[in-house]
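Quick one: structure for this chain?
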Amino acid sequence: MHGKLRERWREKMGNTRTVLGEKVREALASVLPITAIVLVLCFTISPVPTDTLLAFLIGAVLLIVGMGLFTLGAETAMTPIGERVGAHMTRSRKLWVVVSVSFLIGVIVTVSEPDLQVLAQQVPGVPNAVLMGAVAVGVGAFLVVALLRILFRIPLNGLLIVSYLVVFILAGFVPKDFLAIAFDSGGVTTGPMTVPFIMALGVGVASIRSDENAAQDSFGLVALCSVGPVLAVLILSLVYPASGAYIPAEVAATADSRALWSLFLRAFPEYAVEVAVCLMPIAAFFAVFQAVSLRMSRKKVLKIVVGLLYTDIGLTVFLTGVNVGFLPAGTYLGQQIAGLAWNWVLIPIGMLMGWFIVQAEPAVHVLNRQVEEITSGAIPGKAMSASLSVGVAVSIGLSMLRILTGLSVFYFLVPGYLAAVLLSFLVPRMFTAIAFDSGGVASGPMTATFLLPFAMGACQALGGNVVTDAFGVVAMVAMTPLLTIQVLGLVYQWKLRRQAAPEAAPAEEEIIEL
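Got it. Here's what it folds into:
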């Protein structure tokens, strides 16, 4: 008996190590390109202090390990919780249950999002708790709308048109300093904690429908949940106008290698507590739902608990590496490159970073995998990754152009979203939903903790206004995939028509002969 249990335990541990190894290899392939770019810049046009470079390299290692553990935890815990809760609450056939539970989930998961906490600390003039509360309510309200859309089969593009029309009308009445911050809040809200849960929730809700379009309609939740925070912060700006100046994080100087390592050791407990607090509401919600309604087997519950532990440890390691190693390097590089006589090089360097950095976003891997599974390989993960990389590269290039010229983010967001909405009438509706979801997942912790500091460092060196010129990078990253993924949909649609054309040709010839 005990021998069989030991064999099962060894088999499970072996499977876990195999899966974890795959996740770490995926993370390694994602992080190495951006690490190589930074190293080339450090050894050529933008030299950095040795301690900053070493901190960056240590951060890269922690990033790889943390991302591997996080993605394993998301698959083991966050996705099953979302799917089971979504399916169970919709089977009750009670509208008030769907509305109340989905609103509560939206608020809890948003408060648990580390990216939102990072942004809230950087916004001057608004208390952190107030900003996070407003954003959480916005996500909760739009998660209700998104789930009701699935149940009542409401077209996504119609909801998006109405939502963004309200957003841009309201944006005309808010203080200028709040525009970029409001759109950035929509991007950071859909991060590594929120995306796996919300997307799985959509799959769970769609599973009770028997029609063929149910799986396609499960996409679009992230898109709508990205609108809620923008509206919430725009409304909040009428009460709490932005004031004060942004104070960037300083690059800590260290005397030796031991002092450098102590920076990470001091930061690790802080992020461990932060991530534990973030995960606690989700764990408590699952425990209550399990006791009251789900009643899953002890084996499945234990698996989810282990998955939550993986998520906790992974995110802690990830955030420690990013904030201690990547953020200071990003700020310093931005300052150095912007200080060059030929600072226009910011644009191509930013585009190159954007191309690779989106591959290091944990939530991107979750989305790519779910898209490939639901479409049965019709939309391969490589095509999704390439389209996202193109979109993010363009967005970072435009963001660097904004910093050099001082152009308002509004000049880019309005035509961008208008073009995205128009494309939604030309491509298959699944691509529209995936495109708007992609915009949310592309703007994750790597964008908030490396590209945004890079932009802020460049803006400071050029003497610009950080609040109006540097903020907005996350919003730009969230917008451009809406265009590139839908263009991918046009190509996909064109290929299908070309394949169908030869099949139709013989039939036409037969009719002529008859």
